[in-house]
Amino acid sequence: MAVENTPEIPLWNDPTVSVTARVDALVDAMTLQEKTAQLYGVWVGASDQGGEVAPHQHDMEEAVDLDALLPTGLGQLTRPFGTVPVDPALGALSLARTQSRLAATNRFGIPALAHDECLAGFAAWGATAYPVPLSWGATFDPDTVRRMGAAIGRDMRSVGVHQGLAPVLDVVRDARWGRVEETIGEDPYLVGTIGTAYVQGLESAGIVATLKHFVGYSASRAGRNLAPSSVGPRERADVLLPPFEMAIREGGARSVMNAYTDTDGMPSAADEDLLTGLLRDTWGFDGTVVADYFAIAFLKTLHGIAADWAGAAGTALHAGIDVELPNVKAYGAPLAEAVADGRIPEALVDRALRRVLTQKAMLGLLDPDWNPVPAGLDGADLDDPAALRGRIDLDGPENRALARTVAEEAVVLLSNDGTLPLARPRRIALLGPNADEPTAVLGCYSFPQHIGVRHPGTPLGIELPTLRDTLSAEFPDAEITVARGTGIDDGDLSGIREAAQVAREADIALVVLGDRAGLFGRGTSGEGCDAEALVLPGAQQHLLDTLLDLETPVVTVLLAGRPYALGRAVEESAAIVQSFFPGEEGTHAIAGVLSGRTNPSGRLPASVPRGPDSQPATYLGARLAHASEVSNIDPTPAFAFGHGLSYTRFDWADLTVDVQEAPTDGEFTLTFTVRNSGGRSGTEVVQLYLHDPVASVVQPVQRLVGYTRVELKPGEARRVRVTVPADLASFTGRDGRRVVEPGELEVRLAASSADQRLTARVTLTGAERHVDHTRRLHATFGQEPMARA
What we know:
This protein is of the alpha/beta class.
């Protein structure tokens, strides 16, 4: 049946007809070169003068001639804001002018889709630097993370960006991996729920969220970046895949990025069973799959499974990768030539092209009224670039307030002998390499650490108060003396004596330790900054131990990208405060916890090891993965997953279970009371774990299947109700299918994976039942207030 459209415009530009019809018409009208042009990006940097973007000369690729490429069209513009420092308004103008030229140059008038990084905020100069994802996990608060994702998405859309390369849904399997700071934690349910909330926020603002890295990147051997992954199919299915499954099904993510790693010899970029069979055919994903940067070329250069660029292109296309990023390489001339001479079927190009054009159509990029000018420049005089400078604020008061909320909820109080909160100390010794360092709160994908370090003469673009600054405001009557002691990783011992003397003369010693975020060895945390052992970098442990030898109480404060073994400090510090790169408002949050202005509610998203060499270890292990008599190595952590203290006390009591037995397709409900029996308001994080005593395959001792935050005033109590579907007990059985088996379950209501408060036993009855990706994923929590004690 013929589709009619308005005669004044081509069918593909007509929004009154179906997207499928528009895309089909456009594909039919394109030459091969025009088709392949939509399947790659070009890495560019926006102009700080408002002129058109310029190709980024990356050391991994030869220079790109943008002028030569534009007549055939262009799929994506790579990181226009995340490449060089540029005023947001002038960057938006630069991008708009480039888009206008691009649309005018190719014969179909198709603009590019612009993408940028947004791992911990929009990675643009002057944009809010939010806490890193590991801090998101520490909040156990999807609602706040969802609001943060929406705020980040609105900022990106205001300057003309369409796609964000986040969130990272890799589950931590070895904390030595440098990219732990980019992850949400070591539990798939926590990663899935927090990551899905971020996706929902980003997508609600019109930004295409990109799930990464699909899949197995975090399970690399010895925690080395890009090292092979040795996971089996069951670990992959039950630990690594569920966050992606949830974010696609419930988050509405419209893009997925492949992982660099190979699993059992199969690179993700070449894995048709993963990228097409599971992702599309089983889960029903209909968005785009984009290559992690240079991943298609890596099939030739690193993995050695392609002889040339055309072979790499054909392998990736066949597997299901639609778009090559960051620059044109395999999907350019090599792909077109291989299709022309019959080595690669044109049908593979058309399949990827339809996905790309469908997404562009749904973003409005094919509509006749498409306008390259983004919302942030509405009403501006675009002919006067100088007048635009400063017009767009990507770090306004609402953003900063939200950044502070996330940071405050993410601070974890690991230990406390009663020293905290500090009671108006007269003399404070502020020690350590991160005590007075502005960038100590930033992760490696923040703009200052990722890009700004290459432009040392450029201002940071955001305010980054040090802990010294915020403590001075928090304790205005105190005398604060600062001594660095040692560097992050320089091993310098020359300043330790001074630090010890400063501590002796103080009422309290705050030692601020941790990481410096960077890339590929330029930091102690971040991409390509893997650790041989989980010992504090450099001479920091030496500094800490020296201070612990003194009579002055020591409060250990960590600004880090991963958990570290802390040696004697676990037992001997007066208190330990853990923060994972908490962003631009992070030192305010830490100062508030130290003073007691904020009652800490953060919980560990990844366990803190007792020793530096017992890796890899997570709480999510089978019985033989924990301490046992058959090994002399004890992996028991110093502080377990989910752990975190408060300045008040919570009592749990009066557990009831509605049924003792439930069918394998049914559910059961637990009800119990949580009461704040302390003297100040606080938040308890109720965690729900399942223990399956007998199963057909080896199971973790326990696994998180639900959680909720309970906010209580002094003396206040709530009756908490949680309904648990039997589906949550499912796992991958012997035949590779997900199964719910009959038998006894132990349901643990806990304050951490090591702090079980209430326990119920329920028996699942009836037949063994197979479930799939449509199974129920969540327990349902409810709260009812009770009379005060």
